[in-house]
């Protein structure tokens, strides 16, 4: 092996920089492994930018008596609450409709068991009356409820994901977004993979890796197929849509409401100056069905308006939030309804070459699961995570009427921001909390967006192109479901 080849050889190549890939990247680098993390798009630009942001202990698994799994997820949740700056404790209130068939006493017993499985680290279950419901809800439809504690993300799921990738101490490991892999070959004699990829600047690079992990989420099956990797498991795709509404009275309480069909629920969760309402649960064939439709919005509005005193319309929606859940299934299993599938993650290795695939995954148990993945690959336990080695960005108050935001220039240089969507959607919450993806209902923030684009790009023409592309995309996406 020549010197150049040695420099470009990695212990592990991770494909996909979502929550699974980013956590595994941090674990492996903190364990002194040389790791390369590549993503075809921006970091955290798939399912990891569109979750419900709840860091939960797996309460739904009590229905199937999976007590050991719930215990493990509670432990994982509480670890993140204790050590991660991104996660805090939040109360969720389960509301009972007057015509609900759910038993108050069974639910209370279940929540008590849930707390016990979490070793009593979360607060006690509390009963509440209708006067605790949101101000615009029709309280005559309800009969109070029960509140319990979970974990929740302070900023966003994408910023939580990015925090695992970027760290203060320089290492030999590297992470790159917007890369295009041209070829992957297993070289039997050298006992490593040879990988050719093109980076954001169109530069071709050849690297070598002893092992590969596919953590591409909803794209994992396609990546395996592209490189002729056969697996027993695959993904069933489920689309989830949230409406982001105005939070006029800065409500803080989060509520869970019966959807009255399919044993499912919907959530009302204040987030910043918005309220998330959703999600939907729609089985789809491919990521091409990701865009929000009129049907998605109408469904959620109808479910909400049925519980409100003063109805709302599409024009009241600040933004929409949509993502795809990659749910694990066995290839020979037929799926009738996505809620029948477990939200658990599994790990599958190829028997002939060191190519591994992660299927599924959750925010809550991602760290513990990534520890297990590391152990299975390297046959050793990883080092403890250093939660304090993350990068802290300086801030600016220059844009959006003085909102405190990460400094644009610093963020571009240190977190590989390539376009407006990277900054407005994933490094900040502007594209979620400000109407029409940050444009404003009356296009009042176009000047701010243009100035940010000029800071991102080296040339005026590139800045203008990105500005035009971003603003047109936001308007088009809103028109798709609004009109």
Automatic annotation (TrEMBL):
List, for all copies, the residue spans of the domain called FAD dependent oxidoreductase.
Answer: 11-329
Q: Does the keyword Metal-binding apply?
A: no
Extract the Gene3D superfamilies matched here. Answer: D-Amino Acid Oxidase, subunit A, domain 2, FAD/NAD(P)-binding domain
**InterPro entries, per the entry:** FAD-dep_OxRdtase (IPR006076), FAD/NAD-bd_sf (IPR036188), G3P_DH_FAD-dep (IPR000447)
Which keywords annotate this record? FAD, Flavoprotein, Oxidoreductase
Q: Report the cofactors.
A: FAD
Cited Pfam families:
DAO
Coiled-coil portions: none
Query: So what family is this one in?
Result: Belongs to the FAD-dependent glycerol-3-phosphate dehydrogenase family.
Task: Supply the name of the protein.
Answer: FAD-dependent oxidoreductase
Organism field = Carboxylicivirga marina
Taxon lineage: Bacteria, Pseudomonadati, Bacteroidota, Bacteroidia, Marinilabiliales
